[in-house]
Design goal:
single chain; 246 residues; mainly alpha
Length: 246
């Protein structure tokens, strides 16, 4: 890979990320519609589609960050890609480690402290989305099997069962914040990163804590309350009736 190829990958991933974000918005709306209608099978189906889209978006967005212009050199991109063989969390950590080498070495304990804190965030809140995506993509829609497909994999089965729009929304927001701070580290290690990195860490931790206290039941309650306040349900009913009558 050379700089021209790196830029082409970045531009391609920008388009992929934008398209996937649009797809996620449409599916999110479909989930909310199904929740309003208390259509459990439709909620479950669209929630799994939402999870698959998140995994695809997270992978594309990570690649976009790694290939961002005026960031990593070609050799550093190769190191990140190699680290990805050990999982996405390892690749995120490699980004942090490489990015911190571009800071002023005289800044005392700043670099080790920043690395430790960011790696703690990665360990706590980044999982390998390809594992979940692969199970769903290979037809393990409800029960996950192990690598050789000879036994049930209980931990991923539990994760599949627990999928809902609130949980996936928390994954999305956490990924956005992490991607932003790592992108600043790669592109502007001595300016924007030095200024903002800890605030991003605080926001990630607050966002995760907040998401842990949110429930699907509360989400549905807010949707229904909004419908009552805005008359949205009646408007949807009229639009459906008029469409059928046309």
């Amino acid at each position: 890979m050379d700089q021209t190829a790196k830029l082409a990958v970045f531009q391609a991933q920008v388009k992929n990320v934008q398209s996937l974000k649009t797809a996620m918005r449409h599916v999110h709306r479909s989930i909310n519609d199904a929740l309003r209608a208390n259509d459990v099978p439709r909620v479950e189906a669209f929630s799994k589609i939402y999870a698959v889209l998140f995994c695809a978006w997270a992978e594309s967005n990570f690649s976009k960050v790694v290939h961002t212009p005026h960031g990593f050199g070609i050799d550093e991109v190769a190191q990140v890609q190699a680290a990805k063989g050990d999982g996405i969390a390892a690749a995120w950590k490699k980004c942090v480690q490489l990015g911190l080498t571009h800071l002023d070495a005289k800044r005392g304990s700043f670099k080790p402290n920043a690395q430790q804190k960011l790696e703690e965030i990665i360990d706590a809140h980044v999982f390998d989305p390809s594992l979940l995506r692969n199970k769903l993509a290979h037809g393990q829609w409800v029960i996950a099997l192990n690598r050789d497909n000879v036994a049930v994999q209980n931990d991923l089965t539990s994760k599949i069962a627990a999928l809902d729009v609130v949980k996936i929304g928390a994954w999305i927001e956490g990924h956005k914040l992490l991607a932003d701070v790592v992108e600043q580290l790669i592109e502007s290690p001595k300016k924007a990163f030095m200024r903002d990195w800890y605030q991003y860490v605080v926001e990630i931790e607050e966002q995760i804590l907040e998401s842990e206290n949110k429930t699907l039941a509360e989400h549905v309650k807010r949707l229904l309350a909004k419908d009552r306040a805005t008359g949205a349900k009646a408007k949807r009913g009229r639009a459906k009736y008029e469409g059928q009558s046309a």
